[in-house]
Specification:
- By secondary structure, this protein is an all-beta fold.
- Helix content is 0%, strand content 36%.
- The protein has strands at 38-43, 50-52, 58-63, 69-73, 76-80, 85-89, 91-93, 98-100, 105-109, 115-120.
- The strands form three sheets. The chain has a four-stranded antiparallel sheet with strand order 1-10-3-6, with no helix packed on it. A four-stranded antiparallel sheet has the order 2-9-4-5, with no helix packed on it. A two-stranded antiparallel sheet has the order 7-8.
- The relative contact order is 0.32.
């Protein structure tokens, strides 16, 4: 079988890249993927709020039921249709060259239909997602 556009026997290829001297690169201060800082769970019960502590770099609330689900996130009510999700993630502040992590979020399942929550924290975070 042949290869299209490349020689499969190439090895030890070196590449040199010259970057401009005044180029400002965003320095990440957090390692953002660690299995012990990531959790997925289902929130089936109605009327009991869950508080997700701040400092996450990714949080997602997903309607896994076949019914419309009304949730309250930080005192703001919204309806998620079947398969719809609400997500929040970190932002890169290019003006100040820093990474802004997510704020605390309180989630209230108003209807009792199952919703899935997925949250990820940086490995240097003090938050244990399994205690949420």
């Amino acid at each position: 079988m042949g290869f299209l556009g490349a020689n499969p026997n190439l090895s030890n290829v070196n590449v040199q890249v010259n970057l401009p001297e005044n180029l400002k690169l965003l320095q990440f201060t957090h390692i953002v993927r660690d299995a012990s800082k990531e959790r997925r769970w289902s929130l089936p019960s109605a009327g009991s709020p869950v508080t997700v502590p701040g400092g996450y770099y990714f949080m997602e609330v997903n309607n896994t039921s076949l019914q419309n689900v009304t949730i309250t996130i930080n005192s703001s009510s919204m309806t998620l249709f079947p398969g719809q999700k609400f997500s929040s993630e970190d932002r890169l502040d290019w003006e100040h060259f820093k990474q802004e992590l997510g704020p605390p979020v309180q989630i209230l399942n108003n209807t009792g239909e199952a919703i899935a929550i997925h949250v990820c924290y940086p490995s240097d975070s003090a938050v244990n997602p399994y205690t949420i």
